[in-house]
## 1
Amino acid sequence: MRRAALLFYLPILISVVVISCTQHQDHSHHHAAATTADEQQFLPPQWAVNANIYEVNIRQYSPEGTFAAFTEDLPRLQEMGVRILWLMPIHPIGELNRKGTLGSYYSIRDYTAINPEFGDKGDFAELVETAHGLGMKVILDWVANHTAWDAVWTETNPEFYLTDEDGNFFPPVDDWEDVIQLDVNNRDMWEAMIQAMEYWVREYDIDGFRADVAYMVPLEFWITVRERLEQFKPMFMLAEAEEPELHQAFDMSYTWELAQTMRDFGAGSATLADLDAALENNFNRFHKRDFRMVFTTNHDENSWQGGDRDLYGDNFKNFAVFAATVWGMPLIYNGQESGLNQQLEFFEKDEIQWDEYKYQDFYTTLLDLNTRNQALFNGEIGGHFKKMATDKDQYIFAYKRIGHHEQVMTILNFSDEERSFTFKDGHEGSWTNVFDSSEMEISSQVTIGPNSYYLLERVYMSH
């Protein structure tokens, strides 16, 4: 545990815990409790406390599909309020058994090389340096479970792979036929993999990694990775997983169950009661200090499930507000600020249609609130969650985030009609509308338009 980071967190944690215990004991959902003092071995970097994350698909981001073209757009993303850039894999893609024309980003040939379609290492260095200069962090997507069939290691270190009874390589999953399974228990492979990860931190000053299918690789490996990488700088680690125990090595995990329920609601096969249950399960399984990534889409959901309108219809903005305020770190997938209503091809060139950035201001407002309002901060420092029951809960989903001196109230109408409702517990008071800065009085009865939201905030003093 880093002493400097602990000294930074300690005063904030003490003040939040004291206020929480004395003022808001009845307002919060109870999170899972730690079972041992050693469960959290690493603290998130200080800069991650109020960060958000933006996923970048270099291939589809621009007509050129290059680092240089993406770098030119960084000032716009900074203005939108983006804090963490998650770059999908940047490595050369396998040719043997390749899917489609361009192949999967997750079929890695060489862990220390650059996909020449994106540019060269100088272009990548410029991207990272520019992002850092604009106050953003950069994390790389890392595939530790498998490689391409024609990866460098298949020639130099075939012992790094599992083989069948005939001595042949094989895919980890039947329909992942463009990749082959590494022997994830081979300690020599661990060392080579960790050295490759260290290379990108040492040479390019990257700020962390998103671990592809992290749950398929032993936890001990990831703990070793974190120990080694922390020797360079504070790291931010995102696990593509939803196993609580992985938070022993990772800062953040996926809210897969919640995301599936959101999509099911969009498809008409789930209710708001199901959404509430998924959220409650989230609280029950994870400790409050665990960062959780909340998303409406990402590269997988978009390419295999559908565009934003396909998934959520007229409730897309409601779910975007939900993802930015409920509990966790919001993810934006590139293109959503223009309304990502296309289903991007995964193995072919299919550039994002940027149009007029119609949701740019919308996301800018959400990210600004998420960054500056302590009630929405990540982990233990963030405010408690309180569900607000109404007499129209089949249509209305309302809740507060209650921080030290700040509160956020979110009211979402998921129905296609204007709704008037009352809060069962009484939540009257004066608030500020986040989107237009107008004052809003919440009375005993509230009326809200179809498929719309109120996002409100206020500052209050504890007694």
## 2
Amino acid sequence: MKPIFKHKGTKVTKAVNPMPGLTWCSLCLSVLFSTLVFSDPFATNLTLQAALDHGAENNPQLLAVFNQWKGAEQNIAVQKGLPDPTLTYGHYFESVETRTGSQNQRFGLSQTFPGFGKLSSKKAVASTHAAGAGDRYRRAKLNLNLSIATSYAELHYLKRSTEITEDRIRLIQDLEKVARTRYKAGAPMAPVLQAQVELGRLEDRLLSLNDLHQPQKAQLNATLNRPATAPLSWPASLPYRAVEADPETLRRELARTSPELAELAHSVEQSGHQIRLARRERLPDFTLGVQFIETGNASTAVTDSGKDPVIGTIGINLPIWFGKNRARIASAAYKKTAAQFSLENREQTLDADIRQILFKLRDADRKINLYKESLIPKAEQSLEVNRKAYEAGQMEFINLIDAERMLLEFDLAHERALADHLIARAELSQLTGTDFLTEKNKHQDTKNTKSDTP
């Protein structure tokens, strides 16, 4: 603020703000808006890697599976431990008179020791269950990555579709101006009407795309455990990496890399331990204990008067219900057989699914290269040639519209192929457990990974 110099004899009037509260209100709103924007990085910069990292840390379903895994690991210590000891107390409602005195109450302490091999079998069952829970967590994370990548790709495709449609609207508006100029010069009015029809069609498409923006954002926000209306910018880019993978190589590595097959394999292993545990349930458990009986003084003078007896005890359960034991073993055996069939079935269907995804990748790659290298440049050239021919009066306007529609179709198909390629890579990662989504690996073609977007 510049200083005010008051000359002698001059009256200075201080400026008055007619709405003093408005300035403070505007300042507070600006600070609040800036705080909200800068505290939420997705409001200004949305990348696939950032979305994947945020989802891994905040998705409630993934966190639930993670805690189930950790709970299963803690259960191992529970299963391998001895049962809790038993403390007993007995009170005689009528004293038992003995030579050494009257017995009034008794105390007992006992500990059960499971039969040979039972604790080790229970530990093995719990350990394989925990390992399967770990595989389930890995699979849930891959499923989450697939959901995030799909929503991200669809949102990017929506962004590019909107931009392309807006560009075509500007093009048709320019063409309409040319048609109007020629109409004023005596040309037919049909080109003007054709341009207006095409403009209306494109504007309707743009309205649909704009209306779809909020549902698409809500879908990605839900996957990231954010409110549906949370600010979310357009995706910054669509990462592209060409993938070359041999289905036979992937199939051989599935037993090592696929969390789904690993979970099923652990289920088979767990069933085997359950069979051994069921067989060992036929062995008896032993219980060792000690009892103390409180004894009062004898009514007559005798040796050991009032001496409290101490009794050692040993117990054994009798697993004599052989039908129940046989049924327990048979039940565990059936579960193992079912787990083996499930594993065998998934190995076959997984191989077929991988081959289908590899086809999608090859098909998307072909389309990306075809549209980028051949069809789009030719369609652009065709549109420019038709435009110059129309302006020179050598071409019908409908031919220009057809050229514009063809270029629009090719541009959208190219963006659709890019989105499908990312989704297919996420699906391949989800099936194999190998990261084809964000990181380079030995299956990728390094010659074609120089840029993120083709």
## 3
Amino acid sequence: LFLCSIVNAPGHLVDGAPHHLRARFLSAKKSPGYAWHYVDHHMAHAASAFFASPFQKAAILTLDGRGEKSTTGYYFGEGLCMDKIADVQMPHSFGLLYEAVTTYLGFLHSSDEYKVMALASYGNPAFIDYFDKLISVHPDGTYTIGDPRLEETFGPPRERGGPIEKRHLDIASSLQKALEQKVLQLARWLHNKIPVDDLCIAGGVGLNCVLNARLRDHGPFKRIWVQPAAGDSGTALGAALWVDIQSRHQGPGLATQPHDYRMDHAYLGPSYSDEEIYDFLCYAKQDFAELASVEEDVADLLTQDKVVGWFQGRMEFGPRALGARSIIASPLNASMQARLNEIKDREDFRPVAPVVLEEEANHWFLNAGVSPFMLFVHDVQSSKAGLIPAVRHVDGTARIQTIRQDQNPKYYGVIKEFQKRTGVPVLVNTSFNTRGKPIVCTPRDAVECFHSSPIDALVIGSFLLHKREKA
């Protein structure tokens, strides 16, 4: 069956392409000039982590639910070379264990694991011994996970949408702590096997920013880079990079040749010109105004505690909104976290995250450096905690995004203007969508989300849509 699926994959890919991409794939069906390549799932994850990273030599760790038979992969990358060192195979999987607990706690598996991570901060690791015995890490870097039998151990599962009890908080906390401890053991094994300074991470488990921070602070590697689309969407990037390198580079000395792509930002999606946006707004009969200075005018709105839908430039690749399709707000009032959760119809316990000017990050967040993808948490500096209460989670941390002017000039400019007005170089940044909906992509998506939610204003390109206050 597996071989049959490989043989028939080209036809499935061409005929199964989404409608808006089908025209591109038709030429692949007709032309003999195209070659189809099979790339192993975890190899694609590893390639996406290493060949997009700033490192020329690194250990690579991939962690997810499953891909073919593998659930965890260890690799070594140098220059244009990448070799597999070892792997862990089904049914032993940190990703699948986290999925199982996510389902038990009443959330949607393969989707809501980040909610369990957020919930963990409210509990105590009262059941850490249970998970510690369940997961065994072996001297060869492999691990085994027993049958969790969650209902037998912890009682009836939580109904979706039901009340969250203390035991639910403690289960989430125990799972998270166990994950951190066990993956830290894997990282130490990998470093002993490949004693280099740098580590690259991909796979869905790599989106666990609390785990990433634990590896950063307590692991054996000096630097860690996590590919921002670490989940399965990132395998497209990895497969493309891997096939490109194999196709264009042959012969000896590949380990000494640097890879020439570096993922300094994730703005790889579609963009829309002011002309296209203007035409759509007119077609949709919207009331709007053109702004003389987007950065200054938006900063004025934010200082008035307005919640702003922000639609600028190329859309982000991956699950995080990073200032192209974002909802932005002031972090000065603690009530903004609850307000944004209400606007987006999210659970009350979920935090909102900050974006901070890169040059200011260390003054506001402990030991903060360059972190453009919201993939690590940092403690909020105690001297600043009272100034940005909306983005400080219950455990005192924040999942930060740093931004430079060259990465996103308008986004950077708004924060800079907000700093001029308030003294605070930080904004709240959350994804531009509501519950159960994808992040907006097109001007139509943005306008529909704006009008179907209590967002105060929409800044789309150079244009402003503003809701009138009720009398």
